Each structure stands twice: as structure tokens, then as C-alpha cells.
TrEMBL record:
<dbReference type="GO" id="GO:0005737">
    <property type="term" value="C:cytoplasm"/>
</dbReference>
<dbReference type="InterPro" id="IPR005881">
    <property type="entry name" value="Ser_O-AcTrfase"/>
</dbReference>
<protein>
    <recommendedName>
        <fullName>Serine acetyltransferase</fullName>
        <ecNumber>2.3.1.30</ecNumber>
    </recommendedName>
</protein>
<dbReference type="GO" id="GO:0009001">
    <property type="term" value="F:serine O-acetyltransferase activity"/>
</dbReference>
<comment type="similarity">
    <text>Belongs to the transferase hexapeptide repeat family.</text>
</comment>
<dbReference type="Pfam" id="PF06426">
    <property type="entry name" value="SATase_N"/>
</dbReference>
<feature type="domain" description="Serine acetyltransferase N-terminal">
    <location>
        <begin position="14"/>
        <end position="118"/>
    </location>
</feature>
<dbReference type="InterPro" id="IPR010493">
    <property type="entry name" value="Ser_AcTrfase_N"/>
</dbReference>
<dbReference type="Pfam" id="PF00132">
    <property type="entry name" value="Hexapep"/>
</dbReference>
<comment type="pathway">
    <text>Amino-acid biosynthesis; L-cysteine biosynthesis; L-cysteine from L-serine: step 1/2.</text>
</comment>
<keyword id="KW-0012">Acyltransferase</keyword>
<dbReference type="InterPro" id="IPR018357">
    <property type="entry name" value="Hexapep_transf_CS"/>
</dbReference>
<dbReference type="InterPro" id="IPR045304">
    <property type="entry name" value="LbH_SAT"/>
</dbReference>
<dbReference type="InterPro" id="IPR011004">
    <property type="entry name" value="Trimer_LpxA-like_sf"/>
</dbReference>
<dbReference type="GO" id="GO:0006535">
    <property type="term" value="P:cysteine biosynthetic process from serine"/>
</dbReference>
<dbReference type="InterPro" id="IPR042122">
    <property type="entry name" value="Ser_AcTrfase_N_sf"/>
</dbReference>
<keyword id="KW-0677">Repeat</keyword>
């Protein structure tokens, strides 16, 4: 057993950590044993656990758990980046959310993480031409998690969505790597225009609660958008914007605002 654990830790340290935490959680709270065994300990890899968890959350009378699980397994087997991106997302949540104390928590309990993983499957379906099925995933994610991400939207890795309520990400939006979003963020359009109409969020961006970024505009790498802001024009890299409409109020305040999660507007920041 010890040798098996050692090999698992070497091959996939994130999954090994989740398994270890799951075993401890069962000992500490036996009433959750059924949930933890079925969601984690029964599975041999993170991707299989992800498929199971997504299927249990999205299943309904319209589509059973087993079918959603098979679709998710197919996506993960065809595109290994879904699993590697999920590992980065787990690490991001653990590093940035002070309420997250174990790798196990996002997989079992955090709807922001779960919604992003379901979106990754929906995006794979969209890119493989199975658009109606992708729309079904989008609908169920919206109904279950109150997060509406169009399946065509491109979402990077290392994503942390804190509290994750009332998030909207439009069809042609792009979200870079290592981005942090808080609740009620909208990446939307400005009207009925077709084609490319949604924001392009760079790497390392922090978007505060309730912020609205509208139109086909760029938000530069490592910038910071203050809570409640309405952003209608391009944001240069490494700047802080605030207000309605948003304007530049200073520098980003640090090299990686999405990681530090510092949302306080300081004089000269």
C-alpha cells in the first residue's frame, strides 16, 4: 500500500493529495463516507472522479447520470488537457481562496470549480460539432450552479471563481490563464451585434464582485478591475480600473493581482 501511494504521488501529486484527504475525511466524518467513496475513493484518476461529480450534479429527468458520465469520460479521454487544466484550477482555488483548506473541497463542494469543469466538457462538445449537447450542458450548469458560460467561450487554466453566483460569460469571450473572478461578474456584449462581441481577458487578471466588462475589448495581463465597475474600453496591462464607467485609477499594485486577491484601492495603486 505504501509503495502504491508513493507511485501515485509521483505520477499525479494533486490526485494523490485528494485521495489522502478523502480517506482522512471519511475517518473524521463517517456520515459523508458514501459521498466521498462514490466521488473520490472509488475512482482511479482525477478525470474519472471529475466525470462522476459532474454527472451527479447535472443529471435530471431529461438526461440520466450515466449518460452524462459517459459523455464526460469521452471528452476527457479525447482531450487530456481537460484533466490537466482541472489540476491547475484546484491549485488555484486552494492558493487563492482562504476558505479552501484542502484540495478535496473544490471537487466535492465548490460550485465555481464544478461549473468550470462542466464547461470544459461543453466546450469540447462545441468544438467537435455537438452543439445541441453543448447547449444542454450550458443549460444545466446555469440551472444548477447559477453560472452561465456559453460553450463556445474559451476559458484558460488556473481559474478561480470565488462564491461563483450569477457569473455570465458570453459566446465570444476569452478568459486567459490564472484569472480570478468574484460573484456577479459579467463578460458580456453591448447589444445585438453578431460575430466577435465579448471581452478578451488577459492572463493573471483579477475581476472584483459585480464588475461588468462589456463589448469586444481587451483587458491586459495582470490588471485589476474593482468591484462594481462597468468596463467599456480597453484596459492596459498592469493597471487598476474602477468606476462607472471604469477609468484607470492606478497601477495593479502587484505583479500578480489574481493570485494575491488584493482588492483594496490604495492611493497611487
Amino acid at each position: 500500500m505504501a509503495e502504491t501511494r508513493k507511485k501515485l504521488a509521483e505520477l499525479d501529486p494533486v490526485w494523490a493529495q485528494i485521495v489522502s484527504e478523502a480517506e482522512r475525511a471519511v475517518r473524521e466524518e463517517p456520515l459523508l463516507g458514501g459521498l466521498i467513496h462514490s466521488s473520490v475513493l472509488y475512482h482511479g484518476s482525477l478525470k474519472r472522479a471529475l466525470s462522476y461529480r459532474i454527472s451527479m450534479k447535472l443529471a435530471s429527468g431529461e438526461m440520466p447520470e450515466q449518460l452524462i458520465r459517459e459523455i464526460s469520460d469521452e471528452a476527457h479521454d479525447a482531450d487530456p488537457t481537460l484533466e490537466t487544466d482541472a489540476r491547475a484550477d484546484i491549485a488555484a482555488v486552494y492558493d487563492r481562496d482562504p476558505a479552501c483548506h484542502r484540495f478535496l473541497q473544490p471537487l466535492l463542494f465548490f460550485k465555481g470549480f464544478q461549473a468550470v469543469q462542466a464547461h470544459r466538457v461543453a466546450h469540447w462538445l462545441w468544438n467537435t460539432g455537438r452543439k445541441d449537447l453543448a447547449y444542454f450542458f450550458q443549460m444545466r450548469v446555469s440551472e444548477v450552479f447559477s453560472i452561465d458560460i456559453h460553450p463556445a467561450a474559451r476559458v484558460g487554466k488556473g481559474i478561480m471563481i470565488d462564491h461563483a453566483h450569477a457569473i455570465v460569460i458570453g459566446e465570444t469571450a476569452v478568459v486567459g490563464d490564472n484569472v480570478s473572478l468574484l460573484h456577479s461578474v459579467t463578460l458580456g456584449g453591448t447589444g445585438k451585434e453578431d460575430e466577435d462581441r465579448h471581452p478578451k481577458i488577459g492572463n493573471g487578471v483579477l475581476i472584483g464582485a459585480g464588475a461588468k466588462v462589456l463589448g469586444n475589448i481587451k483587458v491586459g495581463n495582470c490588471s485589476r478591475i474593482a468591484a462594481g465597475s462597468v468596463v467599456l474600453t480597453e484596459v492596459p496591462p498592469c493597471k487598476t480600473v474602477a468606476g462607472v464607467p471604469a477609468r484607470i485609477v492606478g497601477e495593479a499594485g502587484c505583479a500578480q493581482p489574481a493570485i494575491t486577491m488584493d482588492q483594496i484601492l490604495k492611493s497611487g495603486a
